Amino acid sequence: MPPDLPGASLFLPHQTPLSFAPTGGVSHMPYIRLSIAKPRRGQEARLEELVRKLDETLKSQPGCITSYILRPHDDSGEIARIGIYENEDLAESAANNQSVMAIRSEMHLASEPGHVERAFFTV
């Protein structure tokens, strides 16, 4: 977003739009984390349970604006989570919480190798 614009809005389904005002001539946008996992055979329900547990735990952490659990339209069996945070530091702090790390360890046991963890920030 160009610095001369007063702010931006992020529209999330079923929620009030979030507004992010520029700070110091640079727009302040959230930090996004994306996780995609495919369950091991027979671990579908367990992986979904763990992703939901992770989601609830992270939603309670400082800096988490909102998050979503997603499934694709195909039959890949993948499950994804998008977390939207105020900034990278708060997202990192949440990710390094002991409870979060324990849940992620369990998720790795229930998911196929190749679990994707990506983070995105405004450019």
Give the ordered list of helices and strands.
Answer: EEEEEHEEHHE
Number of strands: 8
Give the class-level CATH name. Answer: Alpha Beta
Query: Gap between N and C termini, in Å?
Result: 9 Å
Report helical residue fraction. Answer: 25-40%
Number of domains: 1
Structural class: alpha+beta
The spatial strand order of the largest sheet comes to 6-7-5-8
Q: State which percent range the strand residues make up.
A: 25-35%
Shape label: globular
Separate helix tally: 3
- Average predicted local confidence, pLDDT: 83
Profile the largest sheet: 4 strands, antiparallel
List the uncertain runs: 1-17, 19-27
3D structure, described in words:
By secondary structure, the chain is an alpha+beta fold. It has one domain: 2-Layer Sandwich (Alpha-Beta Plaits). The protein has three helices and eight strands, in the order βββββαββααβ. Strand 6 and strand 7 form a beta hairpin. Helix 1 packs antiparallel against helix 3. It is globular and about 35 Å long. The relative contact order is 0.23.
What is this structure's SSE topology?
Blueprint: E1 8-10, E2 18-20, E3 22-23, E4 26-27, E5 31-37, H1 44-59, E6 64-70, E7 79-85, H2 88-95, H3 98-110, E8 116-120
Antiparallel strand pairs: 1-2, 3-4, 5-7, 5-8, 6-7
Helix pairs in contact: 1-3
Give me some keywords for this one.
123 residues, alpha+beta, Alpha-Beta Plaits, 4-stranded antiparallel β-sheet, 3 helices
